From TrEMBL:
InterPro entries hit by this protein: 7TM_GPCR_serpentine_rcpt_Str
Organism superkingdom: Eukaryota
Lineage: Eukaryota, Metazoa, Ecdysozoa, Nematoda, Chromadorea
Keyword Transmembrane: yes
Protein name per UniProt: G protein-coupled receptor
Length: 294
């Protein structure tokens, strides 16, 4: 398992790097002429702020561990597992909602940039910055409402048939006794009785796959817009801005959701997948700097 102190230190390093990188991005945007990109710089400022907020959430609010059991996984905070259960649970809610903003902002980035580049050939290019701002606000309200609805069903389970190995590893790796209240989500896809009969918890399966489906739709928007931008700019810069988040943000989340459905015990692998995903807010501004330079 990821050592708690090392996990916290890693997230603080990523948060500091994100803060410095995004400050550099903002300084360069203010100095470089980006008139040709319309009001794109406003979106860059918003993304820079959100990158820092998300990185600080990773470091301060709750550096998250995800431990995988048989047909289930437990989401809990390294620094908040000892908090009262309600406060620990709220901290994970905050983390999750901020974490998913990465996907929403990226898709909005790609769509806006694509529309600006195709210019007058699209009716969307006639929209003012206020139209885009209104659309962004509405999109964020709907997106967060959907995510909050799904996440709110990931309550701590007290009625589940104990996964003996999961209970043992949680206590052995993290010193957490799962029979006592602590701030966490326990996403249980299915339970297996003593006779080996398995019963799926279909609402949770559907909620979780719906989250993955929503994120996949945002990823598809990125890919489609990226292909269009590459054709117009004749540059691989946009491809890198697509490949990197897909590799270190979208893909780890997909594995986190899908691997437990196999019924195999992946244990602490989830911790490393979460650590990979926390890197993105730190390197996102550098991808943006390359794009602006182009």
């Amino acid at each position: 398992a990821v050592d708690g102190a090392s996990h916290i230190m890693f997230n603080w390093i990523m948060a500091a790097f994100s803060l410095l990188s995004n400050i550099l991005l903002v300084v360069l945007v203010r100095k470089v002429n980006v008139v040709s990109m319309g009001s794109y710089k406003i979106l860059i400022y918003i993304s820079a702020v959100m990158d820092v907020v998300i990185a600080l959430s990773n470091a301060i609010v709750v550096p998250v561990n995800i431990h995988m059991g048989k047909y289930s996984f437990v989401v809990f905070g390294v620094g908040t597992s000892s908090w009262p259960a309600l406060q620990g649970l709220i901290s994970i809610y905050v983390f999750d909602l901020l974490f998913y903003q990465t996907f929403a902002l990226l898709s909005f980035h790609f769509l806006y940039r694509y529309v600006v580049l195709i210019g007058s050939s699209s009716s969307l290019s006639q929209l003012s910055i206020w139209h885009w701002a209104a659309a962004g606000i509405v999109f964020e309200i709907i997106f967060n409402a959907i995510m909050a609805f799904f996440i709110s069903h990931y309550e701590p389970r007290s009625d589940w048939r104990a996964d003996v190995r999961l209970v043992y590893e949680m206590n052995s790796f993290y010193g957490i006794n799962m029979t006592k209240p602590f701030g966490h989500f326990h996403v249980v896809y299915a339970e297996v009785d003593d006779g080996g009969s398995m019963k799926f918890n279909w609402p949770i399966v559907i909620y979780t796959l719906s989250i993955l489906g929503l994120i996949s739709m945002l990823g598809a928007v990125m890919i489609i817009c990226s292909i269009g931008v590459v054709r117009m700019m004749k540059s691989l810069t946009s491809e890198m801005q697509t490949i990197v988040p897909l590799a270190i943000s979208f893909t780890p989340v997909g594995f986190l959701v899908l691997l437990p459905l196999t019924g195999l015990q992946f244990g602490a692998l989830g911790n490393y997948l979460m650590s990979i995903s926390t890197i993105y807010p730190a390197i996102d501004p550098w991808l943006m700097i390359v794009c602006i330079n182009r």
